[in-house]
Task: structure prediction
Amino acid sequence: MAAVSVPSTPSIWFDLEHARRVGFTVAPPRKVDVPLIDVHTHAGRRPDTVLLLDAARRYGVTRLVTIAPLDECLWLQERYPDRIIPATTLTYDHRDDPARLAAENLALLERAVAAGLKVVKFWFKPRFNADTGLKLDDARLAPIFRFLGRHRMVALVHIADPDAWWQKYYTDPTRYDSKEATYLQAERAMAAYPEVRFILAHLGGDPEHLDHLDRLLSTYPNLYLDTSATKWLVRELGRQPETARAFFQRWPDRILFGTDQVVRVRTEPACYTSRYWVHQIFWETGIVCPSPIPDADSDGPPMIHGLNLPAEVLRSVYYENAVHLLFD
Ligand SMILES: [Zn+2]
Result:
């Protein structure tokens, strides 16, 4: 009798081919009714930022933490005050002059605090360590971390890359620490600044080793993880969905939803919608299907093995933990 304007088979919402045909513009029904916060994206003073914001809106993502240099952060905040929570980067040009390094960044952080910013991004991956000689526990950064602690700011840190990258890119041991050793700088910083909340991006940079993340989370109460890096997390957690689900159930209050969507120039809207689609399928359902995101690190065609996280875990990860960290 009643005319239905949407496909009547529920599974069509989760069907990759259907989703592809509509450019991933229609989000499947959500398992939980919370306004999602994506705590890890990269945007800027670029026209395509609207494509990311539009994709987010379609998937119920109401607010996004966007990483950018401070001036772009302020521009984005003024332009999209209800949608964007900017996260500023710092400047390391004068790292050879510790007093100047501190003074420039403290001045930058004063401006950030005056504008209400809450998050500072540290991109301390192995290549940055090697190129700059700076590690997260470097004494030159102490004034910066003390400032973050005083102002209840959050440090969002990229600390490590996939295991496979140590076979592909970080093969020179005179230039790069091992993956295990690279964590020492993060551990020392978390121990030295217990008043600073740290979010280690990309599930701590170690979705391959959930036992390692268990140890870090048990040891450092100021540590949180985000779920960003779509291909990497879908690949590694999807290898062991039961173990991954149990991990999320052990730490529902310490993991925050993030995607690592990056706004580039002249992109297709589906770049952004497809990633939100993959995240939703992966976290919320037990569906096994091909992934629409190419993955150079995958052996064979990339697949999604959904984790089917319980609703109460999703509520914390999607929303409550971000509110607690960013707004309490
Ligand atoms: Zn990122």
In short: Confidence is low (pLDDT under 50) at residues 1-8. The CA atoms of residues 28 and 275 lie 13 Å apart.
